[in-house]
Amino acid sequence: MHPAFSVIFLTTLIGTGQGLFLALYTGQVYAFFHLLSEQASKGFYLGGSLIALSLLIAGLIASFFHLGHPERAWRSAAKWRTSWLSREVLALPAFMGMVLLYGAAHWLDWNQPLVTIGTLTLSATMVFGALGTVLCFVLFVCTAMIYACLKFLQEWHSPLTVINYLLLGSASGFTLATAYSVYAAPELMGFYGKWAIIITLLAMVTRVASLMRNCKLKPKSTLQSAIGVRHNKIVQQAQGFMGGSFNTREFFHGKSKILLRSVKWVFLITVFVLPLLLLAGGLSTSVTVLLSAAFLVQYAGLLAERWFFFAQANHPQNLYYQAIS
Amino acid sequence: MEMTQLALVIDLNVCVGCHACVTSCKEWNTSGQAGSMSDDRPYGADPTGTFFNRVQTYEIGAFPNTETLHFPKSCLHCEDPPCVPVCPTGASYKRKEDGIVLVDYDKCIGCKYCSWACPYGAREIDEHQKVMKKCTLCVDRIYDQNLPEAERKPACVLACPTSARLFGDVHDPESVVSAAIRENGGYQLMPEWATKPASHYLPRRKTRIKIHADELSRADNPLKKERQLPQPGKSEPSLDDVTSW
Ligand code: SF4
Ligand code: SF4
Q: What ipTM was predicted for this assembly?
């Protein structure tokens, strides 16, 4: 497939925003269960929520560049019963609203206990956070299923696609939370840093697993099944036009195999190896600028990862477009 | 199963790859109510544009045992179309009454998701109108009461000089298309994805008769009609010697 930058930015930006929100709430949940002595300030939550929200808005803006008729975008909420794209269109604003509510509730100090269970006190911010977490996971699933549900794009048609969207988004969000806590809540830096390392490691395992799976894929469609002729040697002589069409522009990345392979190694290093080293270095030496660098490198790497994700998918329609004339 | 499922049957045995269906399709549909099908640089070095139908060519086998196959390709109006449920707006839909898969150009947001979901590459975005386009089976002429009945067919079917394109209801066992599929080994493209394309293709067919040596003379031949006649010797007078014209 031809990687579209609008979709690359959409998926990486909202993934990071979602991950950051999960990080904020994870901190609060730890404090709720008294597993974390430090409770961050309300400014930390508001600021974090606003950063997450900005990332989500930036992703939403990027997505509009993908549409031929952005002014009709509202129509895309119609078919949520059948279309994962439509579901994403609903889940994204719902999640954005909940992130805003979560940050606002913290700012307004809605931490008074609504219910008390033993030593645990449940407050409005906890409830909003829980709802936000549900919506966050829904959004991850919707985004990933847009790709994973297309069965003949075999590289995408796997539960690993959903797991990778979830883990890669969370990894970048937790890394961002680590960098953010340096300025807003230094006492939480270690907590977020360790989680960022764990999630980045997990994401590395699942992303490498999907690379290995894709290596072994055998295309179900062949030129034989595409035109229905049983012969081992079929060569296309003409595809019906000379100057290219939507079919040749949308479904081919047009780059060399070597470039594709280089991008794969670039993203494996910049999404996983370097950020892990930078996070570990930043946490152990308290050279905190390394933590910011970890996020920037990881986000840039995710752009390459997403580019590769699209480029690697091989659409069966390409069988019909192998030779110009 | 819907009552009616309109479709094309394309006979690869007689298609000569003349592109008459391509040009007639473009001519009819670009002048239709839904607006033109835009082109870029139509007379330039790198022309491109929106088409509903393309004719491709394949070479099968290795020289000297090769065969050329001309292969027209357009939307197959799948009975289980993967392009329809993915559309977020409902712009892509399959008509209940006749099974035609259509795009509502006024609802389409140009997200291209449906084109990703068609394994055949049958959908093309119009780069200027920014909406998804595809074959409509000439829905704007097959029901047109102002046309003589014989002309209420898709433009490509009428244009084909070799009658390689048949049009009809594949759910009606008596229709020409059903008979053609049944009797001539009609098949579907990429059956592995269970899209159930309504349009079928008829394969290249060789017409051969098998004659055994003993069939060359009659086994039952009481009058010896085909026996070897006596050959006159070389020195015998020939017919030319005994007659004078
Ligand atoms: S051929 Fe493609 S566009 Fe046409 S109905 Fe089937 S899946 Fe949809
Ligand atoms: S491009 Fe148009 S028809 Fe296709 S999925 Fe998007 S809105 Fe639906």
A: 0.93
